């Protein structure tokens, strides 16, 4: 399978993740808006922050794959701007591979944390929502991010070889 085909597939995955993140953010906005509106009448939604925290944590994780595929991360190139194209591509490949590894470890730890929350039947204080689903959602987003980062590292390595 060519790099272009992989890019197309992973970009579709990343866009799907970003759309899911958008829906999660809309949910957080809806809960916050409802709680503020009810609070104006002295009846805020009990536990609204619990829902918003879980939705925002998962949404952030689901936004990152598209950010990775578009190369939209913050880049500080003060020390590297004079490197040749091959050197920049090689450095980019190494840094993205490290990012893929770090994010994969985070996804793994989130999955273990989610399992522990499920196994111990941990719930939020007010609404008694199970914690595990927030961990599981974030682990899925981080796994997609790690796959995208590993692909972009591979793509950068191929670009470094072509620049030779």
TrEMBL record:
InterPro entries: DctQ. Residues 29-157 form the Tripartite ATP-independent periplasmic transporters DctQ component domain. Its main location: membrane. The complex comprises the extracytoplasmic solute receptor protein and the two transmembrane proteins. Part of the tripartite ATP-independent periplasmic (TRAP) transport system. Belongs to the TRAP transporter small permease family. This is TRAP transporter small permease protein. It comes from Falsiroseomonas selenitidurans.
């Amino acid at each position: 399978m060519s790099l272009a085909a992989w890019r197309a597939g992973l970009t579709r995955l990343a866009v799907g993740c970003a759309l899911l993140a958008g829906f999660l953010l809309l949910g957080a906005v809806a809960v916050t808006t409802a709680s503020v509106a009810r609070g104006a009448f002295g009846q805020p939604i009990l536990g609204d922050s619990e829902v918003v925290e879980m939705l925002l944590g998962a949404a952030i994780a689901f936004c990152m794959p598209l950010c990775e595929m578009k190369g939209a991360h913050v880049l500080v190139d003060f020390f590297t701007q004079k490197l040749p194209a091959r050197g920049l591509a090689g450095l980019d490949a190494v840094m993205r591979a490290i990012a893929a590894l770090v994010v994969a470890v985070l996804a793994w730890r989130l999955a273990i944390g989610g399992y522990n929350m499920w196994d111990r039947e941990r719930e939020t204080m007010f609404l008694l929502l199970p914690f595990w689903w927030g961990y599981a959602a974030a682990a899925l987003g981080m796994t997609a991010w790690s796959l995208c980062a590993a692909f972009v590292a591979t793509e950068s390595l191929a670009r470094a070889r072509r620049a030779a």
